[in-house]
Amino acid sequence: MSGAGAPTPQTPIDGTGLRVVIVAGTWHDVITDGLIAGAQRTLDTAGAAHSLVRVPGSFELALAAQAAFAGGADAVVALGVIIRGGTPHFEYVSAATTDGLNRVALDAGKPVGFGVLTLDDEQQGIDRAGLPGSKEDKGAEAADAALRMARVVAELRG
């Protein structure tokens, strides 16, 4: 399981005053809806203002994140599901999505919480989606990372 060695935040993060946009794909809705619920729960607990934007798929997440920053977001939580198939499509979409979101974060100088699951099969996603019986909650982890990085960046910039 990929969660081995994952950090366990000891202090709750304060998201008060932060505006966060969750951008989420529409493929594999059971898994994606679990990721969204985890992210929303984390942002609500932290007191961050947030909204949700749905996009056709993971490939489109980067452009939506870029638009969210142009609209004044302090952070973005990107959520999507890419499941390996029998063609190279998986590699292309996974790489383009990852590279695109990284570029958006670096260009904006603002955090993108990365909650895009790249999976071999649907069960791996169910195990990570924060659903009842899931072993991990990657939506919550991505939201927590986005909030923590928003605070780190603000502190470093003074």
Your description of this structure?
By secondary structure, the chain is of the alpha/beta class. The chain has five helices and four strands. It has a four-stranded parallel sheet, sandwiched between helices. Helix 1 (29-46) runs parallel beside helix 4, helix 1 crosses helix 5 (138-157) and helix 2 (61-70) runs parallel beside helix 3. It starts with 18 loop residues before the first strand and ends with a helix. The model has no long low-confidence stretch (mean pLDDT 94).
Write a concise keyword list for the protein shown above:
158 residues; alpha/beta; four-stranded parallel sheet; 4 strands
**Approximately what portion of the residues adopt beta-strand conformation?**
15-25%
The number of helices is 5
**Helix fraction bin:** 40-55%
Count of individual beta strands: 4
Q: Characterize the biggest β-sheet.
A: 4 strands, parallel
Class derived from helix and strand content:
alpha/beta
| Contiguous runs where pLDDT drops below 50 for at least 5 residues | none
* Oligomerization status of the protein chains: single chain
Q: Biggest sheet, strands in spatial order?
A: 2-1-3-4
What order do the SSEs take from the amino end to the carboxyl end, as H and E?
Answer: EHEHEHEHH
Using the CA coordinates, give the radius of gyration. 15 Å
